[in-house]
Fold this sequence. Notes:
alpha+beta; Chitinase A, domain 3; globular; disordered N terminus; rotamase; Recoverin, domain 1; two-stranded antiparallel sheet; single chain
Amino acid sequence: xxxxxxxxxxxxxxxxxxxxxxxxxxxxxxxxxxxxxxxxxxxxxxxxxxxxxxxxxxxxxxxxxxxxxxxxxxxxxxxxxxxxxxxxxxxxxxxxxxxxxxxxxxxxxxxxxxxxxxxxxxxxxxxxxxxxxxxxxxxxxxxxxxxxxxxxxxxxxxxxxxxxxxxxxxxxxxxxxxxxxxxxxxxxxxxxxxxxxxxxxxxxxxxxxx
Length: 210
């Protein structure tokens, strides 16, 4: 183990001396609460239901899903930059009911431009609680289930039908507005040739770990 650590340190020093590539920005993750029982863990492609609070470095809160807007948790798809990149990195391998504190550097948040009330080059802290995890339409296991006519491509109708069935399977009433918004988002990002279908190749999501 010691030899491995020394080897890593030496290679890092050599890289910095020779003008090597700078290390990528990382998210600082603190697990604040994790339930004893965990039936599944979040992965890229899953749809997460979350409550969240956002803070600046000085501790000032700039957003709370529990106190602002409709005070409802939000759904988002993990791994497709539907939220900031720091969320995609920091919310992997979570259990339903788990709460984490993420400290996210500017490069994985809103960068040099900022956004709205977020100034440029802001390091942000989020307290995020995952309330529910569902299979998303981007998971590889779901493709054949979604492809109703077995033509190896997905129409908007097929994706929407899959979402409707998933909601009903978990005891939730269909939500056409939410489903349509999610379908439009998926096609905007995945339908590369803009032919109105997502092919099996376009559907394939590249994981960071591959």
